[in-house]
Write a structure and sequence with these properties.
Tetracycline Repressor, domain 2; Arc Repressor Mutant, subunit A; single chain; mainly alpha; 75% helix; 2 domains
């Protein structure tokens, strides 16, 4: 029963936070929607902020698993997977009820950069960037360390622009730009810098 109550709280909070915003939703509303008592709430979460952190942590795990599985389902060669990122992003943006990136939304509401909520958002974005870099490494890009943040910038831009435009077209345009970036030759200096980091144990 305790596990069920915790999951009901997380499910209700995730939907409410995403649909209405973190600040707009109070604990009482979450208790009502989840049909969980106040005492039970505080047995699972020390505060509303602690609940927000757990919701975002769960969302991060689910979203990154979905992204990986979706790209793998395309069955495209490793060299095409960095561009396939934007096909997957388009699918996500086309999903029902898209109201922007949950992490960007949370970061805007949690203005304090030292807050645990902000920390979870940063960890999520870092993890996605790491995954993008893994795809670039598998694609044989020597410039993966510099190219990954560039592709991530395109992803972030598409996430925000899609809210303004109300469509997934931003992901398509970002994918075209990504293809142009990937068409450029790798900078030989990136390979040299990577070898130096290996030799020096990552000190440079």
């Amino acid at each position: 029963m305790a596990v069920q109550a915790r999951e009901r709280l997380l499910d209700a909070a995730e939907k409410l936070f995403y649909d209405q915003g973190i600040r707009a939703v109070g604990v009482e509303r979450i208790l009502t929607e989840s049909a969980v008592g106040r005492a039970s709430f505080y047995r699972h979460f020390a505060s509303k902020d602690a609940l927000v952190v757990e919701v975002l942590t769960r969302t991060d795990q689910r979203w990154r698993a979905w992204l990986r599985a979706t790209i793998e389902s395309y069955g495209v060669p490793a060299a095409e997977r960095p561009v396939a990122l934007f096909d997957a992003l388009g699918e996500w943006l086309d999903g029902a009820g898209y109201r922007g990136c949950a992490f960007i939304n949370a970061m805007i509401e949690a203005a304090d950069s030292d807050s645990p909520i902000h920390g979870v958002v940063v960890a999520h974005k870092d993890a996605v960037t790491d995954y993008v870099q893994q795809l670039l490494v598998a694609a044989g890009r020597e410039d993966h360390a510099t190219l990954a943040p560039e592709l991530m910038l395109l992803i972030e831009g598409a996430l925000v622009t899609s809210v303004r435009e109300g469509s997934s077209e931003a992901a398509t345009r970002a994918g075209r730009i990504a293809r142009m970036l990937l068409a450029r030759p790798s900078d030989p200096r990136d390979a040299v810098r990577r070898r130096l980091r290996v030799v020096t144990g990552g000190m440079r």
